[in-house]
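Run log, item B.
One chain of 237 residues. Sequence copied directly from the ordering sheet:
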Amino acid sequence: MKTPFGTTLPLAEAPYNSRVSTNIDNGKNYYLTAFNPGYALQASELNEIQELFFTNLNLTQRMNYNWSNAGYKIPFWNGCIPLNPNSIRVTSVTTANSNSTFNVVVEKDWYLWTEKNSNMSFWIYNNLATTSYTFTTTVGLGSTEYIGFTINNENINCCQAATCDSTQDPNLRDNSSGFSDTYYTCGASRKKATTSNVIILQATTASTFFPLIKVTLDSATDAVFKFIDDQTITPQI
């Protein structure tokens, strides 16, 4: 299991068979379980709902502690909020002639993501292999740019055929009773959010962009870095 949890969640063991631990470890950010009308409800899916609920609750409690313990106020903004404030670090800042080049470290960690259509927030795990990014501001003196995740939000269906496509997951089938035909034992689909990149933009309006921090050129030689809720980030040497 991903930090700060142990090896598995409590309902992963038989006979409960919740797949939350396995899904997270395999990079599947399934943040909602959506039941399919006309199909049998799996008990394992009810267990997943319990574990997702308590996973989100635990992460929120830990975030509040981590930020308060680090001397910040408890954060919130519509975008992505790191579980730990030190999971986002700014280094190697060079500012001159109304431009700034800098490095942003975005750790593999949990992030509180706010889905734009519903304005609801869910915890997802950043599985990007790259953690260090170099950016250069382009809009000039007095302007603000935003650094954040590109996140793809999609539906993942239980696969009800021998061959599955990229929008289906055969592991969502239930065959705990030993049915000879497992293709029609799908109780529910999933909603999935996947981090695909970290980029810099001049606005936060793009449908797949979710901001983490912002940079403003206060002068020709001074760049100011803040979280989206205006808490200051002090660049590291």
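Observations after the first pass:
- The helical segments are 20-25, 43-69.
- The first helix runs from residue 20 to 25.
Flagged for discussion on Thursday.
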